[in-house]
């Protein structure tokens, strides 16, 4: 959500900044804007809609070496030109990622003092407040520090002061911001892909750190305005993160990366017939998994593995509910927070709540050194690499694998899991390549409503299948526990309802099949994703082989991902950047 880029260096700033901004498109946005210094004056251009609207009116040859830019995902006020960032007030121009929780009170206070606002945003209030503080002391470092003390909520800010047209400032709290350190050039960004065209060396910022970049170089200050040294990091991952590498979409590329990802995790954590260096969950009496969206669905599959293999009672809760429900904070329990981005606001808040109540916390996170990774007591990285498509695929699978390893690590004999995982990369490649998902997608693409039905583990899988379909194809879809249909929902079923039945879980298969037959007799056509060879209950099927309880759910996932992908492709949807969605959900 929202992307930030700031640049000061020896190259013309607009092309560098725009390349960075485009690589952050995956985060989700609905307007974009830039401010740059030319002849010591601030110029601002901003446009609602896609980055190309901004691109169309920019002069890439402009003689400018300093600028800040932003992609905005609307929170306070509509997605229009006025509300787009940057916002300028007096001498201060800023771009902002995050939410200022007390902006309304601050705004009222400022209005009483005679200030006026043209946008509906919290960001313009921040610019106004900073300008007011700065006008009193004429010292930007002190002014930013005082500003930080007045703001509640989260923010990553890039700041230009008109009195210092050759200086770039930044500050952050609970929203991501990193500083790329190139050769006599510096780039501020929300995420690594936005700085790789300049440098792979970067610094992470802690909450309230202030950055000052000018012709003398880069300086960091802590919240007491003491100059501090930060440790430089080097990104050693894939430098071509912004390339689809020949695939039509990032989502398809990322689906195809899953076999290699499993091999990578396996190489790292499996030694002989045992797991090694895997966090030990056996000392905990219970486990609470807390997450959002697909990470929550991964938690449901994880619950299955942990309860069946490790015999530890496990609950799975939406982070947005956990924060506000009554929790018992049992000291013998472990809270596992799962998050691809490591920045999801609700998951981060849930983590902080568990920590505050002295519960051990383990973060299962994809993005290195993200807020959740840094905040948790223990962290287990999913190592899926940068995921660009908004719809998660490889990171979701990696989350499940990590949960499986946590569960299997408690077993005396881990050989069945190890041997199964050895087979998995080839099986996944087989299911990626050997099925004509497009043909099946054609049968489903015209439905307005599609139910994913299943019971037990199959229902947990169905929830992810349904989310994948609705988020990228915009077809209304619901996952429903097949046994619950006749308590109300079956009234919605007729020949115009699409049904995808997940029938993998042998413990309840017969019951699920009876429920599916009830649906079929109301006229609905059934597509089954199943390992039931007889399969007398569906009109069309994706037949999976029956391996074992470890592998069966994992191969099902691939088929559901590809089915959703091909339906969305037939509908010509913007698969990698679905409307209204953001990759990193940093607001509550
Ligand atoms: O970054 P996180 O894993 O914390 O994100 C959680 C959800 O926002 C995310 O899984 C979302 O549901 C995806 N778009 C699903 O594909």
Protein model, in words:
There is one protein chain. This protein is of the alpha/beta class and 588 residues long. It folds into 3 domains: 232 residues, Glutamine Phosphoribosylpyrophosphate, subunit 1, domain 1 (4-Layer Sandwich), CATH 3.60.20.10; 192 residues, Rossmann fold (3-Layer(aba) Sandwich); 154 residues, Glucose-6-phosphate isomerase like protein, domain 1 (Rossmann fold, 3-Layer(aba) Sandwich). The chain has 17 helices and 27 strands. It has an 8-stranded antiparallel sheet. Strand 16 and strand 17 form a beta hairpin. It is globular, with a radius of gyration of 25 Å. The N and C termini lie close together (12 Å). The model has no long low-confidence stretch (mean pLDDT 95). Bound molecules: 5-amino-5-deoxy-1-O-phosphono-D-mannitol (M6R). 5-amino-5-deoxy-1-O-phosphono-D-mannitol (M6R) binds next to helix 8 and helix 15.
Question: What are its keywords?
Answer:
588 residues; alpha/beta; Glutamine Phosphoribosylpyrophosphate, subunit 1, domain 1; Rossmann fold; 8-stranded antiparallel β-sheet; 7-stranded antiparallel β-sheet; 17 helices; 24% strand; globular; binds 5-amino-5-deoxy-1-O-phosphono-D-mannitol
């Amino acid at each position: 959500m929202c992307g930030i880029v700031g640049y000061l260096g020896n190259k013309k700033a607009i092309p560098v900044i725009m390349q960075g901004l485009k690589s952050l498109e995956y985060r989700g946005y609905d307007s974009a804007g830039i401010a740059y210094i030319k002849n010591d004056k601030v110029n601002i251009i901003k446009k609602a809609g896609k980055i190309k609207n901004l691109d169309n009116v920019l002069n890439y040859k402009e003689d400018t070496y300093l600028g800040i830019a932003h992609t905005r995902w609307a929170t306070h006020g509509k997605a229009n030109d006025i509300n787009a960032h940057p916002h300028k007030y007096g001498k201060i121009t800023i771009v902002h990622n995050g939410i200022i929780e007390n902006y309304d009170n601050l705004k009222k206070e400022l209005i009483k003092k005679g200030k006026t606002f043209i946008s509906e945003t919290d960001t313009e209030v921040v610019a106004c407040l900073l300008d007011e503080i700065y006008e009193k002391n004429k010292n930007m470092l002190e002014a930013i520090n005082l500003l930080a003390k007045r703001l509640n909520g989260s923010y990553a800010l890039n700041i230009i002061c008109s009195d210092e047209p050759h200086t770039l400032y930044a500050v952050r709290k609970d929203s991501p911001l990193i500083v790329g350190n190139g050769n006599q050039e510096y780039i501020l960004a929300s995420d690594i892909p936005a700085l790789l065209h300049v440098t792979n060396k970067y610094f992470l910022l802690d909450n309230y750190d202030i950055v000052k970049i000018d012709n003398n170089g880069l300086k960091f200050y802590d919240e007491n305005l003491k100059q501090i040294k930060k440790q430089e990091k080097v990104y050693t991952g894939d430098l071509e993160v912004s390339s689809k590498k020949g695939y039509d979409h990032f989502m398809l590329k990322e689906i195809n990366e899953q076999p290699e990802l499993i091999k990578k995790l396996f190489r790292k954590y499996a030694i002989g017939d045992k797991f090694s260096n895997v966090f030990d969950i056996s000392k905990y009496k219970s486990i609470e998994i807390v997450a959002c969206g697909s990470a929550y669905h991964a938690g449901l599959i994880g619950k299955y593995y942990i309860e069946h293999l490790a015999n530890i009672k496990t609950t799975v809760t939406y982070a947005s509910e956990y924060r506000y429900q009554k929790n018992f904070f049992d000291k013998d329990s472990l809270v596992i927070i799962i998050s691809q981005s490591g920045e999801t606001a609700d998951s981060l808040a849930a983590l902080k709540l568990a920590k505050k109540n002295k519960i051990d916390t383990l973060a299962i996170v994809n993005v290195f050194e993200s807020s959740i990774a840094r905040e948790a007591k223990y962290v287990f990285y999913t190592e899926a690499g940068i995921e660009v498509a908004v719809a998660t695929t490889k990171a979701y699978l990696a989350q499940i694998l990590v949960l499986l390893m946590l569960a299997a690590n408690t077993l005396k004999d881990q050989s069945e899991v190890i041997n199964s995982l050895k087979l998995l990369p080839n099986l996944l490649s087989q299911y990626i390549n050997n099925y004509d998902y497009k043909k099946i997608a054609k049968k489903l693409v015209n439905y307005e409503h599609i139910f994913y039905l299943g019971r037990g583990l199959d229902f947990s899988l169905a929830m992810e299948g349904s989310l994948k379909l609705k988020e990228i194809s915009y077809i209304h879809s619901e996952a429903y526990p097949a046994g619950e249909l006749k308590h109300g929902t079956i009234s919605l079923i007729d020949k115009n309802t699409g049904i995808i039945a997940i029938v993998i879980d042998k413990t309840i298969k017969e019951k699920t099949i009876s429920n599916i037959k009830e649906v079929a007799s109301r006229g609905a056509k059934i597509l089954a994703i199943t390992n039931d060879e007889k399969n007398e209950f569906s009109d069309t099927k994706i037949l999976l082989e029956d391996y074992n309880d470890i592998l069966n759910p994992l191969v099902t996932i691939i088929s559901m991902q590809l089915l959703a992908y091909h339906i969305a492709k037939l509908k010509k949807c913007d698969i990698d950047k679905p409307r209204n969605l953001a990759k990193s959900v940093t607001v509550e």
